[in-house]
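Dear support,

We are seeing what looks like truncated structure output for some complexes. This example has two components. We would appreciate it if you could run it in full and send us the complete token output so we can diff it against ours.
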Amino acid sequence: MKKIMNILFLSCLKASELIEKKLHLKLSRKEKIKLNVHKAMCKACTLYEHQSEFLEKGIAKHLNKKSEEIDSQQLKKQITEKISSL
Amino acid sequence: MTENKVLLSNWVSEFTDELYSWAVFKVSDSELAQDLVQDTFLVAAEKIENFRGDSSPKTWLFSILKNKIIDVYRKKTNKPVNIENDVLSKFFDAAGAWENDRVPKNWNEEEGHLLDDSEFQLVLAKCLDALPEKWSTCVRLKYLSEKKGEEICQEVGIALTNYWQIVHRAKLQLRNCIETNWFNE
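Here is the complete output from our reference environment:
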């Protein structure tokens, strides 16, 4: 019974995989329908999707933080020295 | 100094800042970014005879740097990761259902404000760092280049299916790490 359910309505493993796929690539129509049916029945995966989208925002924010300022004079000096010693 | 070396050192003072900020944006690592900029100029010194001014020096330098960055990602994603297969079985049972202790729990938080919380950001950063390198690279890639998933995969040479499956495993880990370290405190 569980097997048939999984083929029709996806397992949580497959559903969460599609949720991640959806965030990065497009889902096919069939995948979309399956995922929506699964989510309608599965509270855990609905939560997972919500939290996963939240994490995406967090990652984006974390990575777009202003980069560390560096002493570019030092870097320039170092590169120029390397070049003249070639 | 030869004529070329004078030209190069002019470029160093003119373009280093721009090259660096772009590199650091792409690799999110200050030291690595500085090394990449330095390498870029060393390659430029080597190949300057080939530079005929068809493009501006800036464009030329950026194209060298871009290749350097792609190499970095290629190396990172090529490293084998062994625990990959264990992860799914930690989260799901044989039928693919959530394991009882891994079912996503309600976080009960105002999520909008959470992203501005510096302590939460710290936990997120730590959890990102705790991921195997290949995974965290895949998770970061999407935000580090303005490119779509398909193009990224081509650049770093991983199959598309692999890409989101890696992202899937990475996100499961990341989610769990954050739930344990932040929400269950």
